[in-house]
Amino acid sequence: MNFIKKANFTGFLFATFLLLSLSFTVLYKYVLFNHGIHLKYTWLPDIIFFAIINAILIYKRNYFLILITILLLLIKSLGSFFVFDFYENRLDYFKEVIKTVFSFSMVFFIYTYVKNINLSNIVFIFKVFNYVSVIISASIILGFIFNISFFETYTGVRFGFSGFLFPQSFSSYFIIVSILIYYYYNKNIKKISSIYIVFTILSAFLIGTKAVYIFLFFFIAMFFINNKLYKNKVAILFSSLVFTILLFNYKALKEYMLDKFSVLYNVYNESGLLTFLFSYRDLSFLKAKFYVQNNWNITNYLFGGINRKAMLVEMELVDIFLSFGILGSVFLLLCYYKIILKPVAFKRDSFFLYSVLFFIILMSGNFFKSFTINYFIVFSFVILTYKPKVFTEND
Fold it and tell me: DSSP class of residue 367?
């Protein structure tokens, strides 16, 4: 446990609230799956962390992020005010405005707080993350093996196991970002056992979401090409063996896949390719389009205006536009680029993989509003930003 002694207050605070936020996510799933109740205010730990970071920034006389949040609050408040009739009461208006702005601005505060942490803190946070990731991956695999209903991704009959995590969007993002953290920690910071990333990839195949499968396809393809495995005789032999086994068991495999993914297959047959690919988000998009055309004025087009609780398309750019309008969306994305993406040391492979992730986010949504995933995506950016150096824990 020597790594704990090397972490300072920043690392401990970040790791503590990461675990608290994740614990509330698990609690939410437990209450929903066992009692059918949607637990409210599971983002309480994130509010506390947000308040602490604000206090630290004020103490350091750094008001930049606070001003950004205030501006986003004004934009969201103004746009939603012009569609006030779509809220059931005044309290819902204030709650939705505050939570939306909080969810979109949280990542700026977390990244600013931890972006300059030292090597010891990176090691400490990675250890914490590693324990979490192994537990989550194990719960996914055990859920599949023993068919544990609590570990399923969906509450219905659709195939998928996400272990302790919920909802499916968070499960997908967690696994994807976990693979990125393992890959770049091993590449930029310290060599680790390949068993961790293999274990995570194995669990990823069991989640049952299209987003994860898309990422896995591009990640494995990139890894295969970057490492020139097409020249490796062992890799070629193994790939040929796997392909031969699949080919000779094609009929059985097809029946198995149709059984496991019968829900998706039925969506494809009944509603077509577009609805299958977007999981009915195309229909939500049309509903939102109709809403905008019939209820927005020029102010709304500039600043947005929607009750996210009542109408969420779950396609990130669309939801950002609905929440903040043209000007607000440009401002928010510019802030994300200036504060987070620009300082990150993207190289060719990292740029490619994070572009795949960004594409998935655009199609899937629910990324910015997921408080817990902010901790993990920020940590992955910290690893990318850190100057590559191989070291030992005794350094």
Answer: S
Q: Are 378 and 112 spatial neighbours (Cβ–Cβ below 8 Å)?
A: no
pLDDT tens column, 347-387: 889 999 999 999 998 888 788 778 899 999 999 999 998 86
Q: What are phi and psi of 161, to 5 degrees?
A: -130, 125
Q: How far is Cα 150 from Cα 136, in angstroms, rounded to an integer?
A: 13
Comparing C-alpha atoms, which of 129, 8, 119 is closest to residue 393? 119
Q: Within a 10 A sphere around the Cβ of 146, how many other Cβ atoms?
A: 8
* Helical packing angle, 210-226 and 168-184, nearest 10°: 10
CA geometry: angle 313, 319, 323, nearest 5 deg: 130
Per the CB < 8 A criterion, the answer to whether 46 and 58 are in contact is: no
Secondary structure element (H or E) that encloses residue 204, with its range:
helix 195-204
CA separation for the pair 358, 177 (Å, rounded): 12
What single DSSP character describes residue 161? Answer: B
Both tokens assigned to 339: 């504060």
- 109 and 54 in contact (C-beta within 8 Å)? yes
pLDDT mean across residues, the chain: 87
280: Cβ contacts below 8 Å, ≥ 6 apart: 267, 271
Query: What letter represents residue 369's amino acid?
Result: K
Tokens representing 252 are 């059985």
Looking at residue 254, its amino acid is: K
Q: Residue holding tokens 């272990």? A: 163
Cα Rg of the chain (Å, integer): 22
Tens of pLDDT, residues 256-296: 666 667 666 677 677 777 776 777 787 888 899 999 999 99
Closest C-alpha to 95, from 47, 45, 165: 47
Least confident range from 70-74, 140-144, 159-163: namely: 159-163
